[in-house]
Amino acid sequence: MVMSKIGKSVAKKITTAFDNLESSMFGGKLEKAKLVVYKDPEIKSKIKEIEFFINPHTVQVTKEVQVKDDPASQGTPEKKFGQTHPVCLKLGEIWFDTYDTRESVRKKYINDIESLLDYLPNTHHLPTVVFAWGQWHGTGKIPANYKFYVTKVTVDYTLFLPDATPVRAKVDLSLEQIMLRKEENAQRPKESPDHAKLYTVKKGDTLQGIATAEYDDPREWRRIAKTNNIDDPLELRPGMKLLVPPILK
Fold it and tell me: Taking the C-alpha atoms of 188, 190, 191 and 194 in order, what is their torsion angle to the nearest 10 degrees?
């Protein structure tokens, strides 16, 4: 019991030493990074917080947009917006250490992190996590849509006691942004043209095909037909010019 208390005291001093070192290098109070874990993607029911022993060494942000060729353009195809893919985060070199307390670093820290890859009981989704770290977002406030699933956990155990108890680990985390249906739907108007354009009919074109290319919805062929006074969809001929109207918002 006494040794356990002494060990915990030493571990706390080591953590404080790391904190003081980073504070002295950059000035100001050191903010600790953590994952805030929720049961639901709406982040209404919090489960726990996982505070990192040492802050991540790197944070990689991947943002990607899908673009489509515009079939109405002549010559070199123009690109138009398709959709924005979810943001991906990679948190690199997160160190955890229990050497001075002789505890298993796996039991004390890693099991909690690995549990983020397991489905929650009575649900059909993984835990939702929010990455919180001081001024990381620029304002100290976390954007409402900045919530993630943990998709990959890589752990390197680098130090062991004589009985093989792991006491030091380096963790890399991969996270993918959660996009709720209402958030996905909010992007869909961007896929439709916001101004009228002239389309040159090519061999094999149909009104349904043109509507799919322009609006991502073949049912919108009637909009094109009405604008161009087309009574019979089979009247399309290569070289015809069609006015493709915008979908007004």
Answer: 130
CA distance 108 to 5: 16
Cα(7)–Cα(108) distance, integer angstroms: 14
- Where is 200: in which H helix or E strand? strand 197-200
For the full predicted model, state whether its pTM sits above 0.70.
no
Q: Per CATH, which fold does 31-186 belong to?
A: Elongation Factor Tu (Ef-tu); domain 3 (2.40.30)
CATH of domain 192-244: 3.10.350.10
Q: What are the tokens at 73?
A: 């353009």
pLDDT tens sequence across 86-134 = 899 999 999 999 999 999 999 999 999 999 999 888 777 899 999 999 8
Contacts (Cβ under 8 Å, ≥6 apart) of 205: 236, 238
Euclidean distance between CA atoms 214 and 71, whole angstroms: 8
CB 236 within 8 A of CB 199: no
Residues 47 and 37 sit within 8 Å (Cβ to Cβ): yes
The full set of domain ranges for the chain reads 1-30, 31-186, 192-244
Tell me the C-alpha to C-alpha distance, in Å, between residue 139 and each of 6, 28, 42, 91, 136. Answer: 39, 16, 21, 20, 8
